[in-house]
């Protein structure tokens, strides 16, 4: 048996006929940018998260975040020097757009419960930053591993401190977070002021190349982001900002419309595999992620924590199971942030040194059962 960590051909193969038809439609149309496919996708993506304004399609997830923070500055909602709460346990793409525009990342430790931003630590770090003279005015929540990083305590913290809430929704399209009453949920990607999406090929909804998007219900912000993504122009040859070229290709929009139609199945498949792991893995050496009753997780990754990570991964490899690590080196330990992201982040370091992502994207429930059996024999 050999179960690779990820096999993208297994993701595209069942959709091949629809994808090829979409590619043919774009090729025959002769319209490759800013056309009907992008426009339709922007509407469909917004609808998928119950947003009232069309999304702004763009080049990739990092650019979606860059456009968002640049626009927050352009519109006066944030100022360079402002602090932004952001999880220390995240991919570096969550941090880069902050430091690029002179915003100060205020790193927050993950909670043991869900590995997302811990509300208690966020409150403490906000206090420390304020005491040191930083005006913390926003919170970037990252729904890491497809796990909604949103709860009543974070909402209260944001409200009490007048923080804008921005989502890095690169890993959680289709997820839902608890909101208001106990049985109520809201779609990740429409919880705060703006949300960035990534359609990198390995994400739950992946383009066949790079693509991203921003969702916001703030009209001024949306207009600014749209202008910034198109050289800063509000109309042809009229530039109100020093902007960028961050367009999405029509062909990617056409592919993404196909993928979006199958989002529900993708989420269900991942949930089914996670449920098998949750039931079957009983080895006390392996820490399983929690399945929450009050939120809809979409399992971009199935992250387990293993004390002896290298030996565990080697053991799985020898038994035909591929794994990956997300992420071995957190942003505060990257050379580019030496002397910039300072402070101690023990829980983040703990996750970074013990996390192992099990196969989740294209495996069957029977394979998940077999992987669990192998894991349970690890000593
Ligand atoms: C993938 C990812 C991004 C960046 O998206 P790209 O499309 O690769 O630029 C940002 N944040 C998180 C959490 C991601 O997983």
General description of the model:
Helix content is 38%, strand content 15%. The protein is α/β, with parallel strands linked by helices. The strands form four sheets. A seven-stranded mixed beta sheet has the order 1-9-8-5-4-2-3, sandwiched between helices. A three-stranded antiparallel beta sheet has the order 12-13-14. It starts with 7 loop residues before the first helix and ends with a helix. The chain is globular and about 65 Å long. Helix 2 (16-29) runs antiparallel to helix 9 and helix 4 (61-74) packs across helix 8 (219-228). The chain is built from 13 helices and 14 strands. Strand 2 (83-87), helix 5 (96-100) and strand 3 (104-108) form a beta-alpha-beta unit. Pyridoxal-5'-phosphate (PLP) binds next to helix 4.
In short:
This protein is an alpha/beta fold and 379 residues long.
Helix percent band: 25-40%
Strand residue percentage: 15-25%
Radius of gyration: 21 Å
Q: Average pLDDT across residues?
A: 96
Q: Strand order of the main beta sheet, please?
A: 1-9-8-5-4-2-3
- Give the count of helical stretches: 13
Instruction: Quote the distance from N terminus to C terminus.
Output: 21 Å
Task: Report low-confidence residues grouped into runs of 5 or more.
Answer: none
What's the total number of strands?
A: 14
Major pleated sheet:
7 strands, mixed
Shape: globular
Structural class: alpha/beta
Could you spell the SSE succession in H and E letters?
Answer: HHHEHEHEHEHEEEEEHEEHHEEHHEH
Identify every distinct bound molecule in the structure, by name, code or SMILES.
pyridoxal-5'-phosphate
């Amino acid at each position: 048996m050999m179960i690779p960590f990820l096999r993208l051909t297994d993701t595209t193969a069942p959709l091949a006929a629809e994808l090829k038809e979409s590619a043919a439609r774009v090729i025959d149309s002769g319209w490759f940018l800013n056309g009907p496919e992008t426009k339709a996708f922007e509407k469909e993506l917004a609808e998928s998260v119950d947003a009232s304004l069309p999304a702004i399609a763009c080049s990739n997830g990092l650019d979606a975040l860059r456009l968002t923070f640049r626009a927050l500055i352009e519109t006066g909602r944030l100022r360079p020097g402002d602090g932004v709460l952001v999880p220390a346990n995240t991919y570096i793409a969550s941090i880069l757009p902050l430091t690029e525009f002179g915003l100060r990342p205020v790193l927050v430790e993950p909670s043991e419960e869900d590995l997302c931003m811990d509300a208690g630590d966020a409150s403490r770090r906000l206090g420390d930053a304020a005491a040191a003279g930083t005006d913390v005015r926003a919170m970037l929540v990252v729904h890491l591993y497809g796990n909604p990083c949103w709860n009543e305590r974070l909402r209260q913290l944001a409200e009490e401190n007048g923080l804008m809430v921005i989502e890095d929704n690169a890993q959680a399209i289709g997820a839902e977070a608890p909101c208001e009453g106990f049985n109520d949920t809201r779609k990740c990607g429409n919880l705060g002021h703006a949300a960035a999406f990534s359609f990198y090929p390995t994400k739950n909804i992946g383009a066949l190349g790079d693509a991203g998007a921003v969702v916001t219900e703030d009209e001024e912000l949306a207009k600014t982001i749209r202008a910034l993504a198109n050289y800063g122009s509000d109309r042809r040859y009229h530039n109100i900002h020093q902007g960028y070229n961050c367009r999405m290709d029509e062909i990617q929009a056409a592919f993404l419309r196909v993928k979006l139609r199958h989002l529900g199945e993708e989420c269900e498949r991942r949930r089914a595999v996670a449920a098998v792991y949750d039931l079957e893995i009983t080895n006390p050496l392996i820490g399983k992620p929690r399945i929450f009753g009050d939120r809809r997780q979409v399992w971009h990754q199935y992250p387990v924590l293993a004390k002896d990570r290298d030996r565990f991964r080697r053991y799985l490899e020898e038994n035909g199971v591929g794994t990956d690590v997300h992420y071995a080196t957190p942003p505060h330990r990257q050379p580019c942030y030496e002397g910039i992201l300072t402070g101690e982040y023990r829980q983040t370091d703990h996750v970074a040194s013990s996390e192992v992502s099990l196969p989740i994207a294209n495996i069957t429930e029977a394979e998940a059962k077999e992987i669990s059996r192998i894991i349970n024999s690890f000593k």
